[in-house]
Design brief:
The strands form 3 sheets. Strands 3, 4, 5, 6, 7, 10, 11 and 12 form an 8-stranded mixed sheet that branches. The protein is built from 10 helices and 12 strands. By secondary structure, it is an alpha/beta fold. The protein folds into 3 domains: 8-101, Winged helix-like DNA-binding domain superfamily/Winged helix DNA-binding domain (Arc Repressor Mutant, subunit A, Orthogonal Bundle); 105-174 and 280-309, Periplasmic binding protein-like II (D-Maltodextrin-Binding Protein, domain 2), CATH 3.40.190; 178-278, D-Maltodextrin-Binding Protein, domain 2 (3-Layer(aba) Sandwich), CATH 3.40.190.
């Protein structure tokens, strides 16, 4: 049951949170003098505030006997509700500030598989330590899918590989990712590091365009810098299929350095001397994004990237 039979707009005009806090101080101290000391104000204006509040409500909140005061039954009920209102207001303010600072909420994160090998674990561990009130929901996907889901608002951010074409996505470059070559285990080239030019006559295995053009574009640019265009004989849509085809001798492939952290049967890896043999990892979010937690994740990702890869 409501305390007062008045509409919310009328109730708001009756008292402010300042008046409620003044009332609470007097009620809890059971003294105008001690209430004034607690609020760090003089007693006369505090007494006027209480009288004005009672007049607005049309009911006495205190019994005044001599110099002492005590709550009426109506005052007791009003104290309980006033404390709830003030606590709710304080909580609302704090939640708003925390949301702006990125301390609460949730972030749906899309990421490419290679980023999960060495970079993302550091980001996630640090973020969960610094922002324990934010839930992270992770979704593995390729770069084109990340772009689509950002547009559909089914994810909030993505770790992906440029290039991308979009006017509504903000892209922040994080760090380069060196390319390596995956070779059949019995390939005649046995050196641990080679030049791309040494591979110009080899058949290549590439990624399907449906997965995005990040690695593919980087591979083509690197080969062009080495003076040739790769002869791509096969296209695959997954790393397991690519490794299987390499192991079978169907061709070689340029891939992210992170894949060398995992052994694949029948496949070995060689580093590349070529400076242009690299792709990039980027942090993507919508231009219109206003979540403080997204800004916090972006800042932390940039810091971790600089620490690990600079």
């Amino acid at each position: 049951m409501p305390i007062f039979e008045v509409s919310l707009p009328i109730m708001v005009t009756m008292f402010t949170f300042h008046k409620l806090r003044s009332f609470i101080a007097v009620a809890e101290e059971q003294s105008l003098r001690r209430g004034a000391e607690r609020l760090n104000i003089s007693q006369p204006p505090l007494s006027r505030q209480i009288s004005a509040l009672e007049k607005s409500l049309g009911v006495p909140l205190f019994d005044r006997v001599g110099r002492g005061i005590s709550l009426t039954y109506a005052g007791t009920v009003f104290l309980h509700e006033a404390k709830s209102l003030v606590a709710a207001a304080d909580r609302t303010v704090q939640l708003t500030l925390d949301a702006h600072a990125g301390k609460i909420g949730s972030i749906r994160v899309g990421y490419t598989e290679p980023s999960a090998f060495d970079f993302l674990p550091h980001v996630l561990a640090r973020f969960r330590q610094e922002y324990p009130g934010v839930d992270l929901e992770l979704h593995e996907m390729h770069s084109l899918e990340s772009l689509s889901q950002l547009e559909q608002r089914t994810i909030d951010v993505a770790y992906l590989r440029p290039p991308i074409e979009s006017n509504w996505v903000e892209l922040t470059m994080l760090h380069p990712d060196r390319l390596i070559v995956a070779l059949p285990e019995n390939h005649p080239i046995t050196a641990e590091s080679i030049w791309l030019e040494d591979l110009k006559d080899e058949p290549f295995i590439g990624f399907s365009a449906a997965l995005g053009s990040g690695i593919s574009s980087a591979s083509l640019q690197a080969c062009a810098s080495a003076g040739f265009t790769p002869r791509t004989k096969h296209y695959v849509s997954s790393i397991p299929m690519l490794m299987s085809m390499v192991a079978s001798g169907a061709g070689i492939a340029l891939i992210s350095n992170q894949y060398s952290l995992i052994p694949y049967l029948g496949v070995r890896f060689a580093a590349l001397y070529d400076e242009r043999a690299e792709s990039y990892l980027a942090f993507a979010s919508r231009n219109s994004e206003t979540k403080g937690s997204v800004s916090a994740l972006k800042r932390l990702s940039m810091n971790v990237s600089a620490e690990l890869f600079d």
